[in-house]
Design brief:
Blueprint (H helix, E strand, L loop, with lengths): L2 E8 L3 H12 L1 H8 L1 E9 L15 E3 L2 H6 L5 E4 L6 H12 L3 E4 L2 H18 L3 E2 L10 H8 L5 E7 L2 H13 L3 H10 L8 H4 L2 H15 L9 E2 L7 H10 L1 E12 L2 E12 L11 E8 L3 E8 L3 H17 L25 E2 L1 E7 L5 H11 L4 E6 L15 E7 L2 E2 H14 L7 E5 L3
Parallel strand pairs: 1-2, 1-4, 2-3, 4-5, 5-6, 8-10, 10-18
Antiparallel strand pairs: 7-9, 7-11, 9-10, 11-12, 13-17, 14-16, 14-18, 15-16
The structure holds L-homoserine.
The site of L-homoserine has 11 residues, from α7.
Length: about 425
Amino acid sequence: MMRHLRVGIAGLGTVGTAVVRLLDRHAQALAARTGQRIEVTAVSAKARDKDRGIDLSRFAWFDDPVALAASPDIDVFVELIGGEEGAARAAVETAIAAGKSVVTANKALLAKHGMALARAAEEKGVALAFEASVAGGIPVIKTLREGFAGNAIERIYGILNGTCNYILSRMETEKLSFAACLREAQELGYAEADPTFDIGGFDTAHKLAILTALAFGTTIDPDAIAIEGIETITLADLEAADELGYRVKLLGVAQKTLSGIEQRVHPTMVPKSSAIAQIMGVINAVSINADAVHELTLAGPGAGGEATASAVVADLADLARGSHIAPFGLPVADLAPLQRAPLQMHEGGYYVRLSVHNRPGAAAAIATRMAENGISLESIVQRNVSGSRAKAATLDPVPVVLITYATYEKTIRQALESVVADGYLAEKPQLIRIERE
Ligand code: HSE
């Protein structure tokens, strides 16, 4: 008789109910592929009577996810509650302590407690699987941990938040305001319960923290990530980017540098010709640069019930097959402490948008400040000048956009401080880092 893998699911939102449906839909194929029947036997959620469109009467019900995690009647605990503390953390710790493997989609929990949980899982000889925690349906965890075993990774960067990419894409293509696009994303169910997690870059940072550990064999340090959100991006930036051959994306980037691993989340200008620039809407994408493969880009749905459930089911299939691998690819004791490269030492090109009082000598003064700091300009453009007869006084202030060649973060910041001190600017400068393929 075929063995059964008994699964308990805590959290029956969009993803939890989709996991139940997918396991039903592919029951036979999964049994054939893994040699075991993967069977949900128990569930836990907030409201028992809520209509979720699935029959729950066949499962044991637990009001308390921690009690489900401790139940002797399950082999695997699937955590889809969310949140870095509270019930999610307590239930996952309980399941591991009770000798059960855990599958989770909880990026916040892993970013904060991933090392401690992986260590506990190792000690108990159980699995901690989290394919669904980063980029939804894209199998990026497996790709990094298994597919790239024969590579040294130099950089990993990606669009890891569908809400932000949706907002930036809609702003660019439909010329809509930031607020209108955020509202749409919320209505479509992409955004986190608190959308500041999305637009402030924190959701991306949680995911990047996990990818960094896998890519570079280091411990997780979420505090080592420099985070900027997309709130300051305006239509003027998107239009200037378009004219200059770029798109603006919220990227999470982790890169090996001479001073350590640089981790940053910020709006980024990417050349329109790059693979990452083609990713529009709620889609996620991850690009990996490595010595043997050179560059690989994976793209696909990063949020949504079925796509995320696909990743949960893939983890369950691994467990059913008996495949067992250290959660972060190496035993926790062998992960190197993360050496943080300071953002001030970041080296790259910059887009700078200045709102400049239209006085003779203003552009020359800006260019001089750049030159004094050893910054070479790829372009300097005064935008929106409406013909030779336009009077200077009616054009005050005017937008001036600079693109620099590679320089250091501390250098461009220093140059901009001098420009501000010269008194030609009507507003704070807008600075966007450029990421090249
Ligand atoms: N709010 C997230 C996003 C959902 O927009 O991508 C998946 O983590």
